[in-house]
Amino acid sequence: MVWDPFGTLAATLWITGSQWAGKSTVARILARRHGLTAYHYDYHDARGHEDRRIADRVRRGVRPEGPAPDAMWVDPSPEEMAATTLAGFPQRFSWALDDLRGLVSGRPLLAEGWGLRPELVAPIVRSTMQVVVMVPTEEFRRRQLATLDRAAAPPDGVRDPERARRNRVERDRLVAADAVRSAAALGIRVIEVDGSVPAEGLADLVADHFELRGV
Q1: pLDDT of residue 152
Q2: CA distance readout (Å), 31 to 77, 107, 203, 209, 212
Q3: 139-165 b/e with 16+ CB inside 10 Å = b?
Q4: With a threshold of 0.90, does the pTM exceed it?
Q5: Every domain of the chain and the residues it spans
Q6: Are 167 and 84 in contact, with CB atoms under 8 Å apart?
Q7: 8 A C-beta contact, residue 175 and residue 18
């Protein structure tokens, strides 16, 4: 049983899936439309949780600042990178739960982010209808990489920026595929984003899934 003192987690709506599928954009649209509180996992994971990440590294006797850039992005294979990322999600998810369980709202919370994995969320929710997985089609992923500077930019401080960029793209593809497999096993809906529907239309689709029309 996950500790949920205010019943916040059980009532939260979750958008998970892959990088570059429009999760954050859809969450912002739904928050404004329906008066929801949106929780952006990526922002908290990259900033608000850094002190926990450093403390955990110190406890384990590894570099407090984390792996060197080449050791993270250039030297391992994409498969190794994906495995490392997936192995780290449960702990990072526990930190996100700490953020969420301290919130109380008269309306549902809406949490979005690639680290909110289907298999981690499923034991918490009352119904799988509270969860949706958004992933880009391969064509849309390529379009995002071609048009979004932050999607195509290589990691900082690496000796081989192009290899690091390729590794990250392939890692993200593997992590997305894992999310789809997990969702299928749990009966969680997957929305493939191909760019043919604008963000407002995707928000309509997700709102219908969450039955937010009356909220």
Answers
A1: 73
A2: 38, 10, 10, 15, 11
A3: ebbebbbeeeeebeebeeebeeeeebb
A4: yes
A5: 8-210
A6: no
A7: yes
> What digits encode the pLDDT tens for the residues 37-86?
999 999 999 888 999 999 999 999 988 888 999 999 999 999 999 999 99
Question: Hey, is 109 helix, strand or coil?
Answer: strand
For residue 128, which of 174, 193, 189, 71 has the smallest C-alpha distance? Answer: 189
| Check whether domain 8-210 has CATH 3.40.50.300, yes or no | yes
Distances (CA, A) of 105 to 8, 96, 154, 201: 8, 17, 39, 26
List, edge to edge, every strand of the sheet that includes 37-40.
37-40, 109-112, 13-17, 131-136, 189-193
Tokens of 74: 């250039």
